[in-house]
Specification:
This protein is an alpha/beta fold. The protein has 14 helices and 12 strands. The strands form 3 sheets. It has a 7-stranded mixed β-sheet with strand order 3-2-1-4-7-5-8, with helices on both faces. The chain has a 3-stranded antiparallel β-sheet with strand order 10-11-12, with helices on one face. The two termini are 43 Å apart.
Length: 381
């Protein structure tokens, strides 16, 4: 048992050390180049926006170029900005987000064809086969969009990427659920900046904020019945030899004052189920390398040997170093430990629930690649 605990702790610490090394040797943020910004079509799919999401949708975006901001939802939201357009969309696809995006692209393209002299459409919206001077950006409603995010995503596409994503960065929250979410997505190995430098093969991206080339947009629209469409899109583009990159700017996600723990567990349990459906080989690495510390602490207290204590100390020190590099607010950061506990709970929940996922009030059976099949009413009980 002592050898097992010591070896596991050392390997997990080594995993963190490699991540830290790769993060440190990354190129710094490039200086902004003075060049004309292309037109951006910003699509914001949403079903039932919260007050905080409505605030996000109405936040002015000081983008130094043409920007068409379109909110796609079943009902007209109370938008505080006159520069945001609403499109009514109630898709029948199992993945409603992809359905909203498909409807927005087809509607705007059709409007351009019907009314070529209309400035609001003809001058701002091109077809999917548009010139490189127009970029489609899709951002979830819980993201507070700014010019830095848009510009960074656009730069990735103009530098040759077929698909660019931005790592989500939740704001600081003093509630238990909010601290766990920030610990997970900012301080831990599940932070997408860290996942990116440790990726082998197709990139594991987050679809909260993405920029799509014409090829990526066309492929995305084929995933209307797929959960985890961002992971599948990355895989499809990787298979075609097309680059998928991470933007240098992050997607800022404001959190409410109180984040319910139950909602957090439900959300990340679904993430674990998506991971299992898309990357089954990576699913066991969650407890082994992404969240080993809570269990190793318990095992080391039982073993109680100097070698186990030293190995565990090395692991904790390396994780604190990673957390502080990612979240440099001053002082030592420990929310990552909450995040690892959260990952354990969600990973076990995903095992228990198997191939059945509940999403937006409906239950589906997951197939390989995240394909969703609706359960019959008697099966969904």
């Amino acid at each position: 048992m002592n050898l097992f605990v010591t070896t596991w702790a050392v390997l997990a610490a080594g995993f963190t050390g490699v991540a830290l090394y790769r993060l440190i040797r990354q190129r710094g943020v490039e200086a902004a180049r003075a060049r004309r910004r292309p037109h951006v079509l910003l699509i914001r799919p949403v079903d039932a926006p919260t007050p905080l999401e409505l605030e996000n949708l109405g936040t002015p975006i000081d983008y130094p170029g043409q920007l068409t901001h379109v909110v796609v939802s079943p009902f007209r939201p109370r938008l505080s900005s006159a520069n945001v357009r609403w499109l009514a969309s109630d898709p029948l696809s199992r993945n409603r987000k992809v359905g909203h995006i498909a409807y927005a692209l087809s509607t705007l393209q059709a409007e351009r064809a019907v009314s070529p002299d209309e400035p609001a459409i003809d001058e701002r919206v091109d077809s999917l086969e548009s010139s490189p001077e127009q970029v489609v950006v899709c951002v979830d409603a819980d993201v507070r969009v700014d010019a830095a995010l848009i510009g960074s995503l656009v730069d990735e596409l103009r530098n040759g990427a077929a698909l660019a994503s931005a790592a989500p960065r939740p704001s600081v929250s003093h509630s238990l659920g909010g601290r766990a979410v920030r610990g997970l997505l900012v301080q831990s190995h599940h932070a997408f900046e860290v996942i990116d430098v440790m990726s082998a093969g197709a990139r594991a991206i987050c679809g909260k904020a993405i920029a799509l080339s014409p090829v990526a947009a066309a492929e995305l629209l084929r995933l209307s019945d797929c959960i985890g469409e961002d992971l599948e899109l990355s895989h499809v583009l990787h298979e075609r030899g097309l680059p998928v990159t991470l933007a240098k700017a992050t997607a800022n996600v404001p959190q409410p004052a109180h984040v319910p723990v139950a909602a957090v567990v439900e959300r990340f349990t679904r993430w674990m189920q998506v991971l299992r459906a898309h990357r089954p080989g990576l699913f066991p690495t969650v407890p082994l390398f992404f969240a080993p510390t809570p269990l190793l602490m318990a095992l080391a207290s039982v073993v109680a040997t100097p070698s186990a204590a030293v190995a565990l100390s090395l692991l904790v020190a390396s994780r604190i170093a990673l957390a502080n590099r990612q979240d440099n607010r001053g002082g030592l950061r420990f929310e990552w430990l909450l995040a690892e506990g959260l990952l354990w709970v969600c990973w076990l929940n995903a095992l228990r629930q198997g191939g059945t996922v509940e999403w937006r009030g409906r239950r589906f059976t997951l197939r390989s690649g995240g394909k969703m099949e609706a359960l019959a009413p008697e099966e969904a009980r």
